[in-house]
Specification:
Length: 109
């Protein structure tokens, strides 16, 4: 069992659970836009991006590829929640914007 801290709530899940599935099951907003326009977990749309603190499983090739395509940036440290297997306790943050890329610091500029 692992815990996921997300927006002040602590969720629990089995080892190896898909992060997006855990968050959606708990009714948490993984997508800032309508979920219907997402790829539903295939790792191609990029709208389920979140910031993850903790020892998450390695990125998949598909995840690295999608995160290298704008508006994402390989260096921004975000993960695609649909591609993250939970293998440790995590703290997860969803940033603003359609792609989940708008950090609070960005708004202050
Ligand atoms: S739901 Fe589309 S990339 Fe994750």
């Amino acid at each position: 069992m692992h815990t996921i801290d997300f927006e002040g709530e602590t969720l629990t899940c089995e080892d190896g659970a898909v992060l997006r599935d855990v968050l959606l099951r708990a009714d948490h907003p993984v997508h800032n836009g309508p979920r219907l326009v997402s790829c539903h977990g295939l790792g191609s749309c990029g709208t389920c991006a979140v910031a993850v603190s903790g020892d998450a499983a390695e990125s998949t090739r598909r995840e690295r590829l999608r995160l290298s395509i704008p508006p994402h940036n390989s260096d921004d440290g975000l993960r695609l929640s649909c591609q993250v297997r939970v293998t440790d306790d995590l703290t997860v943050t969803k940033h603003d914007g359609f792609w989940g890329t708008d950090r609070p610091d960005d708004r202050e500029r």
